[in-house]
TrEMBL record:
Residues 4-59 form the Proteasome activator PA28 N-terminal domain. GO terms for biological process: regulation of G1/S transition of mitotic cell cycle; regulation of proteasomal protein catabolic process. GO terms for cellular component: cytoplasm; nucleoplasm; proteasome activator complex. One of its GO terms (molecular function) is endopeptidase activator activity. PANTHER family: LD45860P, PROTEASOME REGULATOR PA28. Coiled coil: none annotated. This is Proteasome activator PA28 N-terminal domain-containing protein. InterPro entries: PA28_N_sf, Proteasome_activ_PA28, Proteasome_activ_PA28_N, Proteasome_activ_sf.
Length: 142
């Protein structure tokens, strides 16, 4: 009884894997090739998909009143540089907040990710099924 169920499972996996390799994968290749040649993936100018993120460039963290000009040759030691950054006795990296709020995502890139992600996820699941079939075939040979 146990051996019969295992054999049935192996046959079922084998049939599914054969269908994937002989029918599904070739069709997916054609679908993905058509997707790559579509207008969403053939962008002539990158400026067409650029989005203004409106993030100001922060000042360099080592530029403050405690430092002298490097041209004068009186540059503070490394220890003094880090001591100059220390804010209110709190150690660690200085965290800057975006003054304009959250930076928006690039809507074109998000659309492409939403289009491709499910396809990749399905292909990974199908490849795992084929891998299981190959493993059961190899194990049954020994």
């Amino acid at each position: 009884m146990f051996g019969q169920k295992v054999s049935e499972f192996k046959e079922q996996i084998k049939k599914e894997a054969e269908a994937l390799v002989l029918k599904t994968f070739p069709q997916k290749i054609l679908d993905l090739q058509a997707l790559l040649t579509s207008s969403k993936f053939t962008i002539k100018k990158l400026s067409d998909i650029c989005t203004d993120i409106n993030i100001p460039v922060p000042e360099h963290p080592f530029l403050d009143n405690n430092h002298t000009d490097a041209a004068q040759g009186d540059q503070p030691s490394k220890k003094r540089k880090y001591a100059a950054i220390d804010c209110d006795g709190v150690s660690g990296t200085k965290v800057l907040v975006l003054p304009n709020g959250v930076a928006p995502c690039n809507k074109h890139v998000v659309e492409l990710i939403e289009l491709v992600k499910p396809l990749i996820r399905q292909l990974v699941e199908d490849a795992n099924l084929v891998s299981i079939c190959l493993q059961t075939w190899v194990l049954s040979e020994y």
